[in-house]
Amino acid sequence: MFESLADWLVFDLLEMPMQGHLSDTLHFFVMDIVKIFFMLALIIYFMGLLRFHISPEKVRDYLQGKSKFFAQLMAIALGGVTPFCSCSSIPLFLGFLRAGIPLSVVFTFLIASPMINEIAVIILIGVVGWKATLMFVAAGAIIAFFGGILMEKMGVEKYILNYEAIKNAKTMSMENLPIDNAWKKMHQYATTEAKKIIAEIWKWVFLGVGIGALFHGFFPLQWAETLNSDNLFAVPMAVIVGVPLYSDEVGVIPLVEAMLLKGVAVGTTLAFMMSIAAISLPELLILKKVMHWRALALFTGIVAVSITLVGLLFNLIF
Predict the structure, then answer these.
(1) Closest to 278 (Cα-Cα) out of 130, 127, 117, 153
(2) Measured between alpha carbons, how far is residue 16 from residues 7, 9, 34, 35 in Å?
(3) Fewer Cβ neighbours under 10 Å: the N or C end of the chain?
């Protein structure tokens, strides 16, 4: 359906040649932008129906008193169905800190939330297949679980600045919804959620698709071959390059798809995607307001090394 629309627009309406850098770029852009926004609207809406019954306050109360192991598993699960990028995860992260939840659980959530994205996972299945996607989710969960434990074991609490300056996460109040019917309330909440999230991330989706389209249409195949699985430095390079960039995983997937089509190794590509999602520079700059630079360095180091190891492992498997 999406490819047919792109074919009609690029080749029939615009009468561009079937082969060519510009036509390939535009075709990729149209197909992916329509596909991603369609899936975004649909999936965010249904996840909004689920989140209608789950408020951060309820989650914080529920996790208190539970074992750390169980709480971390819950943090990973919560991370999978909450904000789309690292920066939008921070309000909940700060709210959890103030609620007194153990730091291992808090950092597990901070890592898992951008890395395990329910929409990105569904779209990723169509790009790399369900096996690689399942391994990607498992790797993200493992990194989040042990990353949270390491952050707490390293005594990072002494590097958290001024708890009183931390504000609770803002949530939509169900009491303020004017409609009495339960289904209509759920529909209104889910629709509002979808509009709000798409309004926040649409520019990153356009940017990601645009870069991916240019990569697909103009990127030389010979250079991509230097990033294959035989190059041990490819994964660390991909992680380092990904850190200054900022996007959510949904916005990065078109670039991931273009990289894979050019022959870049699966592990290298997914490591690049994970580094953008989990340790972006804008996220670190925001966290600097509540964390000492030593805590930031420790957080970045743990996540970056973990992603690098996962990328190398993926390159051995795929």
Answers:
(1) 117
(2) 10, 9, 19, 21
(3) N
Domain carrying residue 67:
2-317
Q: Determine the average pLDDT of the residues in 19-45.
A: 80
Token output for 239: 């992680």
Q: Is the pLDDT of residue 227 over 70?
A: no
Average pLDDT over residues 130-139: 90
Angle at 91 between CA 87 and CA 95, to 5 degrees: 150
Tokens at 13, concatenated: 């309406």
In this prediction, residue 150 carries a pLDDT of 92
Residue 281, helix vs strand vs coil: helix
Number of domains in the chain: 1
Length of the chain: 318
Residue 289 has pLDDT above 90, yes or no: no
pLDDT of 87 above 60: no
DSSP string for 136-165? HHHHHHHHHHHHHHHHHHTTGGGGB--GGG
> Could you give the 3-state DSSP secondary structure of residue 167?
coil
Q: Is 174 a residue whose pLDDT tops 50?
A: no
Give the residue ranges of DSSP H helices in the chain: 2-7, 21-51, 56-63, 68-80, 86-98, 103-115, 118-128, 130-153, 182-218, 221-224, 234-242, 249-261, 266-278, 281-287, 293-317
- The pLDDT confidence band at residue 138, using thresholds 50, 70 and 90, is very high
Q: Residue 119 carries which DSSP code?
A: H
| Residues 246 and 286: beta-carbon distance below 8 Å | no
